[in-house]
Design goal:
single chain; 842 residues; mainly beta; 18-stranded antiparallel beta sheet; twelve-stranded mixed beta sheet; 44% strand; globular; disordered N terminus; signal; DUF5686; DUF5686 family protein
Length: 842
C-alpha cells in the first residue's frame, strides 16, 4: 500500500503518534513477584517518579498505574523486601516484570540449633521462642477469604486397615472359608500383618463467593467406595472421625475435643519448643522446630513445625499424640500438614494426612486395631473469576445415586497419585467377600448392634431391639415389638409401626407412621401416623409431634420415689416439611389427641370446662416449626438422614395454635416456644454444652396442655431435665430454662497422682428455671392447688460428674452427683441425687 502524500494525512499520523507516546508514558502495568519463590506479591507500595508518597498499594500480584503526568520512573517498596526502581519508557511501560528480594530479618540476633532438648532459664532465651513470636506476629488467614470468588478441587481418600494381625489371629475359626482375604495383607514395620478392609475415594469441586454475598458450595462429583458401601454405619463412622483444622487456630478440633495448637498464640503454656535444624522444603529454607507437651497427661501433640526462614510462614507441620492420650477408642493420632503461602498475609491448604488408630478395648501398641487414614489433596485454585449463581444452586441430579459413578479411566486421571498395590486389592477383595455368606452374616450382626434394627428379609427391619423390654408402674412389665421398611439408605419413603403389651394393665398399645419424600433437593416430604400408648408427659418442653418420637415411660426401669404421673395418649398426626435453604427446615403439623390419666387413683388430669368436670382432654392444634442447623453435615439423601458429628447449633422456633371445636377440640390457645442448643470448645479446657429454652402459652389451658418444667425421677441420665425435680413439680404459662454443662476432658484430675492413672474426666454443671403460672390456669384443674411455677426465685441445681469410667479404651460409663439449690421446704423432694448411665463417645 502506498502512502498518500496529502499533508492532512501527515498531520493525522503525527497526532496519533504523539497521542500513543503520551499514553505510553502516562500508564504502566505489570506483575510483581518474589525473586526467590517467583510467587506473586500483594501489598506493594508504588511510587511515581520522585514522589515520597505512594501512588497506590497493590491488592493482588499485578498492577496498572495511570497518571496525569508523564511517568519516567516507578519505585516498588514493601516491608521486609529491598526496594526496586524501574525506569519507564514508551517501549518498556507495558508488561513490566518486577522481582523483589526479601531482606534478611535482624529481629533474631542469633540462632543456635540444638539436637538435644536444652534447658533455658526462661522462654526468652529460647531461640525457638523468638521464631514463634514472629509467626504469631504475622499470623496468617486462609487465603480463600481475601478473594471475591474462588474455586478449587479436592481429592479425599479414606482407608481402614486391620492392624497388628498375626498367624494365631489369622488361624481363628471365624476366618474359616474367609482365609483368602489374607492374600491381600501386607507386612508392617513391626512385623505384624496389616489388612485393608475399606477404601473410599471422593472428588469435590468447591465454589466460594465472598463479595457481594457469602456463598459456599462443596459439590461431590465422584465417589468410589469399596467394602461396606451398603452399610451406612461404617461409612458414617469413617466420615465422622475427621474435622477440618487450621494450624493457626489456638484450638484444634479432633472428635469435637479441643487440642491446643502448637502454632497457637498460647502455645508456650502447653508446649516446649526446640530449634533443631534448618532444612529445605519444596525449595524454601525452613526452621525445623521440635515441640512436645510440658505434661504428658494432657490432651496435646508432639512433633515438628517447619517455619519459612524469610517470612515465618508455616510451610508444614506434623502432629502426633502422646502415648497417654485420653480419648476413648483411640490409641494414637497423627497428622501431616502442607501449606502454600502465596503472600505474606495468607495461606492455602495443600495436603493434609491424618491417621487414627482405633481399638475397642486395650491401649497396648500390640493390640489388634483399625488404622483409619484420611488424605486430602487441594489443587487447581482459581481466584476472582466470575461465578454463575447456578454454581451454588442445589440440583436434582446431585442426589441421584448414579451422579457420582465414574469409570476406571476417570479415576486414573483424577487421582493425584496412583493407588498402592494393597489399595488396589481392596476393591477386588471386598467384591469377593460380599459373595461369601459367612461374611455377610458377620456384617449383619454388626449392623444390627449398631443400628438397633435386624434385617429380617428384603425390605423389612425388626426393631429397635433395645426397646423390646420396659417397665413402669401402670403397665408393669412391658414388651414392645416394631418394624420398618428398609430397602436402602436413600429410601424416599418409609413405613414404621410397633405394638406393645403391658402385663399389669393387660392393654395393647400401638403406633404407626408413614412418610414420603417428593424431592431430594428441598427435602419436601409429607407424613401421617397414629398411636395409642402410655407416656410420661412433662419430661420435655420443646416437644416433637411425630408419632414415632421416643417415649419416656418404658425406659424408666428404676426410679427414686413412686411415679404414678403417667398419661394415656390417643394421637393422630399429619405433617408436611420442606427445606427451602440448606439446613433450614419449615414444618407444619396437624395433631388430634385425647389425653387422660393412665392411673386416675394416684394422678389426676381432671379439669373444668364451662362448669363441667372432664377427665379426658381433647386437643386439636396446628404447629409451625422453623428448625435451623447451620453448619450441620448429613449423609444420605433419603427420608432418613444420618448426621455427622459437628459443633453445629440447633435453633428451633415453634408456634402452636389450638383450635376449639375442630374435631371436638376443647380449647383455643396460642403457644410460642424457642430452643437453642450449642456445643462450644473452650480451648484446652474442654467443651461446654449450652441449652436454652423459653416459651409462653398465651391462654389458660389445663395440665395436660401446660408447660411442665422437666423433672427426672429415674436414676438414669436424661438430657435437658432437672434431676432433683419431681414430675409436674413446676408448671408454667411462661418459662425459661438454661442448662450449662462443661466437660473438662480430665484437665483437672490429670494433676492428681494415682487418680490420673484412671483417666477419669470431670464434668461440672448448673441448671436453672424460671416461670410464672396464672391463678386462672391453676383454677382450671381439679388439683390445681398442687401446682406452681418457679416464680419466687430462679430454681437451680448444680453438681459434678465423673465420665470416662471403664477399662482400657472402653470407657462409656458416667456418674453424676446432683444437688438441689433452693425450694428446699417442699414435701417429698430430694435434695441430693446420683444419676448414672452409658455415654458412648470419644
Amino acid at each position: 500500500m502506498m502512502l498518500n502524500n496529502n499533508p492532512k494525512y501527515y498531520n493525522l499520523f503525527f497526532l496519533l503518534f504523539i497521542t500513543c507516546l503520551t499514553y505510553a508514558q502516562n500508564t504502566a502495568n505489570g506483575k510483581i513477584t518474589d525473586a526467590k519463590t517467583s510467587k506473586e506479591i500483594s501489598g506493594v507500595d508504588i511510587f511515581i517518579n520522585d514522589s515520597t508518597e505512594p501512588f497506590l498499594k497493590t491488592s493482588v500480584g499485578s498492577f496498572n498505574v495511570q497518571s496525569d503526568s508523564i511517568i519516567y520512573k516507578l519505585k516498588f517498596s514493601k516491608k521486609n523486601y529491598t526496594p526496586e526502581t524501574v525506569t519507564i519508557t514508551p517501549e518498556t511501560a507495558n508488561n513490566i516484570f518486577v522481582k523483589l528480594s526479601q531482606e534478611k530479618e535482624n529481629t533474631i540476633a542469633e540462632i543456635v540449633i540444638h539436637n538435644e532438648k536444652p534447658k533455658y532459664k526462661n522462654k526468652k532465651e529460647n531461640p525457638a521462642y523468638a521464631i514463634m513470636q514472629e509467626v504469631w506476629k504475622r499470623k496468617r488467614n486462609n487465603g480463600l477469604e481475601k478473594f471475591d470468588t474462588y474455586t478449587y478441587k479436592e481429592y479425599e481418600k479414606i482407608q481402614f486397615d486391620a492392624n497388628n494381625l498375626d498367624s494365631a489371629f489369622m488361624s481363628k475359626k471365624i476366618f474359616n472359608k474367609l482365609d483368602f482375604i489374607f492374600d491381600y495383607a501386607d507386612s508392617t514395620a513391626s512385623g505384624k500383618i496389616g489388612l485393608p478392609i475399606f477404601l473410599n475415594e471422593s472428588i469435590y469441586e468447591n465454589f466460594g463467593e465472598n463479595k457481594p454475598g457469602k456463598k459456599i458450595k462443596r459439590l461431590l462429583v465422584a465417589q468410589k467406595t469399596s467394602g461396606f458401601q451398603d452399610n451406612q454405619v461404617i461409612t458414617i463412622t469413617a466420615k465422622n472421625l475427621y474435622r477440618d483444622i487450621n494450624i493457626y487456630d489456638n484450638t484444634l478440633n479432633y472428635f469435637d475435643i479441643g487440642f491446643p495448637s502448637p502454632v497457637g498464640t498460647n502455645g508456650f503454656s502447653t508446649y516446649d519448643y526446640n530449634l533443631t535444624d534448618t532444612i529445605s522444603i519444596h525449595g524454601e529454607n525452613a526452621y525445623k522446630i521440635r515441640y512436645q507437651p510440658k505434661r504428658k497427661d494432657v490432651l496435646a501433640f508432639q512433633g515438628y513445625l517447619y517455619i519459612d526462614t524469610d517470612n515465618y510462614a508455616v510451610l508444614g507441620a506434623t502432629l502426633k499424640s502422646t502415648q497417654k492420650i485420653n480419648v476413648n477408642f483411640i490409641n494414637s493420632i497423627s497428622t501431616e500438614l502442607e501449606y502454600d503461602n502465596p503472600d505474606e498475609n495468607t495461606f492455602l491448604p495443600k495436603k493434609f494426612i491424618t491417621e487414627i488408630e482405633l481399638t475397642p478395648f486395650a491401649k497396648k501398641r500390640t493390640s489388634k486395631s483399625i488404622i483409619a487414614k484420611r488424605s486430602v489433596d487441594y489443587s487447581q485454585y482459581e481466584f476472582n473469576k466470575p461465578l454463575d449463581d447456578k454454581a451454588f444452586t442445589r440440583r436434582e441430579e446431585e442426589y441421584d445415586a448414579k451422579f457420582v459413578d465414574k469409570d476406571d479411566a476417570y479415576w486414573v486421571q483424577a487421582r493425584p497419585d496412583s493407588l498402592s498395590k494393597s489399595e488396589q486389592g481392596v476393591y477386588e477383595m471386598l467384591d469377593k467377600l460380599q459373595q461369601t455368606p459367612k461374611f455377610n452374616r458377620i456384617v449383619k450382626i454388626y449392623e444390627t448392634l449398631a443400628s438397633g434394627y435386624y434385617n429380617a428379609f428384603k425390605g423389612i427391619d425388626i426393631g429397635p431391639i433395645f426397646s423390646i423390654y420396659g417397665k413402669n408402674e401402670v403397665e408393669g412389665d412391658r414388651i414392645r415389638l416394631g418394624a420398618r421398611t428398609y430397602f436402602g439408605q436413600n429410601d424416599p419413603w418409609r413405613v414404621q409401626f410397633y405394638t406393645a403389651y403391658g402385663f399389669k394393665d393387660q392393654q395393647v398399645k400401638y403406633g404407626a407412621e408413614a412418610r414420603y419424600m417428593f424431592n431430594r433437593v428441598n427435602r419436601f416430604m409429607i407424613g401421617a401416623g397414629t398411636k395409642r400408648d402410655i407416656e410420661q408427659l412433662g419430661v420435655q418442653l420443646t416437644t416433637d409431634d411425630g408419632i414415632m418420637a421416643r417415649t419416656f415411660a418404658s425406659s424408666t426401669l428404676f426410679a427414686r420415689g413412686e411415679n404414678a404421673s403417667l398419661s394415656s395418649i390417643n394421637k393422630t398426626n399429619i405433617f408436611a416439611a420442606i427445606e427451602p435453604w440448606k439446613n433450614f427446615q419449615v414444618r407444619v403439623d396437624g395433631t388430634l389427641q385425647s389425653i387422660k390419666s393412665a392411673n386416675p387413683e394416684k394422678f389426676s388430669l381432671m379439669y373444668y370446662r364451662d362448669g363441667d368436670l372432664r377427665k379426658t382432654l381433647n386437643d386439636s392444634h396446628v404447629t409451625l416449626s422453623l428448625i435451623a442447623r447451620p453448619g450441620a453435615k448429613f449423609s444420605q439423601t433419603g427420608v432418613d438422614r444420618y448426621e455427622h458429628g459437628t459443633l453445629a447449633p440447633t435453633i428451633i422456633l415453634k408456634y402452636t395454635r389450638g383450635i376449639e371445636g375442630l374435631f371436638n377440640g376443647d380449647f383455643n390457645y396460642n403457644r410460642l416456644q424457642f430452643m437453642f442448643y450449642k456445643p462450644v470448645l473452650i480451648g484446652s479446657w474442654g467443651k461446654t454444652l449450652i441449652s436454652f429454652e423459653a416459651g409462653k402459652t398465651f391462654d389458660n389451658v389445663p395440665l395436660g396442655l401446660q408447660n411442665v418444667i422437666p423433672g427426672n425421677q429415674s436414676y438414669s441420665l436424661a438430657q435437658n431435665t432437672f434431676s432433683q425435680l419431681n414430675y409436674y413439680e413446676f408448671v408454667a404459662d411462661t418459662y425459661s430454662t438454661l442448662h450449662l454443662e462443661h466437660h473438662f476432658n480430665g484437665k483437672i484430675l490429670s494433676f492428681i497422682p494415682l487418680i490420673k492413672k484412671l483417666k477419669l474426666r470431670e464434668i461440672a454443671f448448673i441448671r436453672s428455671a424460671y416461670g410464672t403460672l396464672s391463678d386462672a390456669s391453676k383454677a382450671i384443674n381439679v388439683d390445681g392447688f398442687k401446682y406452681s411455677a418457679p416464680s419466687e426465685q430462679i430454681y437451680f441445681e448444680y453438681g459434678f460428674g465423673i465420665e470416662n469410667i471403664g477399662i482400657g479404651n472402653l470407657r462409656i460409663f458416667r456418674v453424676d452427683f446432683n444437688w438441689r439449690g433452693n425450694y428446699l421446704d417442699r414435701p417429698d423432694i430430694s435434695t441430693f441425687g446420683i444419676k448414672a448411665g452409658f455415654q458412648v463417645g470419644f
